[in-house]
Write a structure and sequence with these properties.
Elements: H1 2-20, E1 21-26, E2 29-34, E3 44-46, H2 52-57, H3 59-67, H4 72-75, H5 82-94
Length: 96
């Protein structure tokens, strides 16, 4: 019976972490970014080879990175000048 409760607590903890944080793999390692909305999307994302079209497909992740003051993650991905574009996309999302 104790294994059952341990499994329930472990599952609940993992679900909580998965719903409230992004695990982002960048050039500097793996970073924990708080989500702006609770969901199970984009739990783990490898952004090392992200291009602008990838950022457009992962708008909640871009918004969370900008909101959490971890903009260095967005600067690590090529092209180097895309940061302004991502900030524009996020600003557009936040102005809705």
């Amino acid at each position: 019976m104790s294994r059952f409760f341990f499994g329930m607590l472990t599952g609940a903890a993992l679900l909580y972490v998965g719903m409230h944080f992004h695990f982002v793999r960048g050039d500097g390692g793996v970073f924990l970014v708080p989500k702006t909305e609770s969901s199970l999307s984009d739990i783990y994302v490898d952004i090392r080879d992200f291009r602008l079209d990838h950022w457009k497909a992962h708008k909640p992740l871009a918004e969370a990175i900008m909101a959490s003051n971890q903009k260095h993650l967005a600067q690590e991905t090529p092209p180097l000048a895309f940061r302004d574009t991502v900030e524009g996309v996020v600003s557009g999302l936040l102005s809705r």
